[in-house]
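In full, the data.
>
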Amino acid sequence: MHKHNTTLGWDIGGAHLKAALVDADGTALQVIQVPCALWRGLDQLEKAIDAVSAKLNHLPDQHAVTMTGELADVFTDRNAGVAHISAVMIKHFGSETLFYAGQSGLVSAREVSLYAARIASANWLASATYMAMQVNQGLLIDIGSTTADFILLSDGKPQTRGFSDAERMQFEELVYSGVVRTPLMALADRVPFAGEWHTLAAEHFATTADVYRLTGDLREAEDMAETADGAGKTPEESARRLARMIGRDLHDAPISAWIGLAYAFKQIQLNMLKNAAMRNFSRHLIDYRAPIIVAGAGDFLARDMARQLKREYLEVGYKISAHNDETRSWAGVCLPAYAVAYLAAKSAT
């Protein structure tokens, strides 16, 4: 292979499309994230690709792709999802497009069908492989809009027990809990409010984005998903959705009470994620002084978790070479896209 000057890494999710442009040294030049409601059809991916392409400062020399979007329920199964998504990417960027196949590394377009099972939902392994090159040991916690990854790193490699989604969920290396799209009914059966425990409605009335708008944690640039009721994203509208979760209306209590309820939901989610972290720590593969490495749109939750567990934490951005601070920050949010671009850039000789 000849040396490429720039590589664009793509991370194709079920709700967002992320892209990271790096130079031959792996320095991040530009990072872009756009919404991509893949469950509505492949045309959503086409539109998202066009949106990213329109924002690029210059055209890349090569493309490298990782994905989790094959899980979208528009596809009959994961293999079909990988086939359809890869076909779209090859149509746009040609047969030279590379695909990340987890333990097998980067494979060519013609090898996609052979490696479909390893290409499916391997974006976390790209992130972990990159970070294991950068730190001696630690627990990488990448909290996104929908899920959280927990990956122990030591001896220059990820120390994972599972590779498939099913295995990773079983070992709590993958937890379906994120800071934007997770329905609040998935966090708990009950929540404290006005001095009492209130049972939650088993209904998609509100999401974690409502919680983190009210706590002030969620960055506006990360807040791309539609709301549960299709209404707006103001504090009052978010609080109204939270109130519905306990069978109440916004006017039943002052806004300060709804903000208090949001903080209660935050602690409930933190406790759930802390349990996963403690289970991973209990394998005793890393020193107790090893840091939690925080990444993703929910990096604020990982930081709070580290404080509660009396652990040091390391912002993933400190281990990313970037054109400027804003690009570095976005590369940390879109870590799999940056990681797959970096791995592809470094594999070209």
About this structure: The two ends are 6 Å apart (CA to CA). The mean pLDDT is 96. The first helix runs from residue 42 to 55.
